[in-house]
Amino acid sequence: MSNLLWPENKPAALSLSFDDARFSQLDNGVPLLAALGVRATFYVSPPTMEQRADEWRIVAQTHEIGNHTLTHPCSGNFLWSRPRALEDYTLEKMAGELTDANDVILKLTGVEAQTFAYPCGQTFVGRGEDTRSYVPLVAKHFLAGRGYLSEAPNDPTFCDLAKLNAAGFDLASFDTLKPALENTLNSGGWLILVGHDVSDELPRQAVRSATIEAVCRFAQENNIWIDTVENVARHIAQNR
Ligand SMILES: [Zn+2]
Hints:
The structure is a single chain. The protein is of the alpha/beta class. It is globular and about 45 Å long. A hairpin with a 6-residue loop joins strand 5 (124-125) and strand 6. It contains eight helices and twelve strands. Strands 1, 2, 3, 8, 9 and 12 form a six-stranded parallel sheet that branches. The protein has a two-stranded parallel sheet with strand order 4-7. It has helices at residues 23-36, 46-49, 53-59, 91-109, 135-141, 174-187, 209-221, 229-239, and strands at 13-19, 41-44, 64-67, 115-117, 124-125, 132-133, 144-146, 167-168, 190-195, 197-198, 206-207, 225-226. It binds zinc ion. Residues 19-20, 68, 72, 119 line the site of zinc ion (ZN).
């Protein structure tokens, strides 16, 4: 059991996060989270966010809006990212991505983004001997940086806030997530879940509403602290 006390002696922490400002997050995710009384973190992609800026401004009053870069650069092994491949990036160019996205978020929602999510969970720029980590850049600009497709929950006494583990929950059933939730509960850890669309129909990269409901029910029944990445990270930063 971790010796970092969560608020109100809660046994563990859970954050739900959703990436890319997909429309189904506004259409399905936000109403569901309101019904469940849960605050989440939305790592927005500015070009998509701009299309429904008025709604995101309202979302920002309840939920956390985080930085996910301006143009979502990932490895060029993804063909869609080849024109902005991390292998061709420099730290200077990445610094521009971070500050430009912060500027758009501030302009559209009035919020200064406090945390970051690495697109595709990838933390490098360049290639071969010239590869550099951009974790230090994230550490400089943000309270926390969230990864993707990691295995273990975060140990609040040890984790690097600039490089947090996070597990995907697109298409997952509650049963497949239950071992990770129980591990988090038993270790006093912090589990961060990552989804994209919120839909019961889309065939890929979509979290099912029944899964969100069941995860939140499990957390509430076990007194797990559910809050935004920002709020949990701030608690850790101030208490360890
Ligand atoms: Zn993304």
